[in-house]
Design a protein that fits this description.
Blueprint: H1 18-28, H2 43-48, H3 62-82, H4 84-92, H5 98-119, H6 124-152, H7 157-181
Helix pairs in contact: 3-4, 3-5, 4-5, 5-6, 6-7
């Protein structure tokens, strides 16, 4: 029995066959939009989450604001740690114990480390938490300063400037937080 030689096998190149690729991607569930409106290029990015496109949706001035905040928090923290009496006297025109101002400086330094980390991350959630941390600080600081000034019955120029700047910084931070939380409209 002689067998006939078979024709050489033709290998199908699925990478160049667009219909085959489309069917494969459809079976895997990639390439289409998910509930959040994101198009995943692979099953891995679909499972792990895809934050690459976040950089395109950052509000204008966000990174500059986080940089400015980090510098201000770090400066105030170092000043509170190194010169606690002078910092308090400049703002409130009163004297106090050094330990409370140094504790305040330590907490500012901790927040500044969070801000420095938020400056260099591309994760949307981390930037939102960074802004929320900053907003909480400004809100609490505004309330504590207001109540303290009402109890003392004294309002110096430095304290008034501090209250005004805290309110402005709180509004700017909340504005950026709100802009990051919005979903972009599909084009």
């Amino acid at each position: 029995m002689a067998s006939k030689p078979h024709a050489p096998l033709m290998k199908k190149h699925s990478q160049t066959d667009l219909v085959s690729r489309l069917k494969t991607r459809k079976v895997l569930g990639v390439g289409g939009e998910d509930d959040d409106g994101e198009v995943h290029r692979s099953k891995i990015s679909q499972m792990l989450g895809n934050e690459i496109k976040f950089a395109l949706r950052e509000p204008n001035g966000l990174r500059l604001w986080i940089l400015l905040s980090a510098v201000v928090f770090t400066s105030a923290a170092l000043m509170a740690l190194a010169f606690p009496n002078q910092l308090y006297e400049i703002i409130f025109e009163l004297t106090t114990t050094r330990i409370s101002i140094r504790l305040y400086g330590g907490s500012l330094l901790s927040i500044s480390l969070i801000l420095w980390n938020g400056l260099y991350t591309a994760e949307k959630v981390l930037v939102q938490w960074t802004l929320l941390t900053e907003a909480c600080y400004f809100g609490v600081q505004f309330l504590v300063t207001s109540v303290s000034l009402l109890e003392m019955g004294v309002l110096s120029n430095g304290a008034a400037l501090l209250l005004l700047s805290e309110a402005i910084f709180l509004l700017i931070t909340l504005s950026f937080y709100h802009q990051l939380g919005r979903r972009t409209k599909k084009i």
